[in-house]
Amino acid sequence: MPMQRQTCCLMKYRNYSPSPSKEKSAAARKTLSQREADLANAGDRARTLRERRDQLATASARRRLDAIEQTLTENPLDVQRANTILREAIERMVMFPAEGRLVIYWRHAHQPQETVFFTSRFDWGANAKLLIDAPAHTK
Predict the structure, then answer these.
(1) What is the pLDDT of residues 6-39, one digit of tens each?
(2) Domain boundaries defined on the chain
(3) CA dihedral angle for residue 128, residue 133, residue 137, residue 139, rounded to 10 degrees
């Protein structure tokens, strides 16, 4: 029996060839380094594109706000154009008529803007403090 074990082990070593596995690991290392380089290039490209997007977004936001100002100060007011311009610049608005609040979610801003406004549903008794504390430009 011991002889058979020895022969069996020799047969394993006879079939063992170190070069194919070394070739495979060299190829794997080459592929890995290529993928890492691709990943680094993609990261650089993404960073460049984000910077470019931020620059364009700022310029685009300025153009939108300038268009809003120009449209809303025209006399007579072109309501259809004003609505179109506002839709381009504002993501959504949430009104709280009884409280006299309007929350504006601008496309270019990270935080919503809250402002005071008055409607026929405004509760003058409960919200009189708003009139006192409101900034001058909202009165």
Answers:
(1) 555 555 555 555 566 667 788 888 888 999 998 8
(2) 17-138
(3) 10
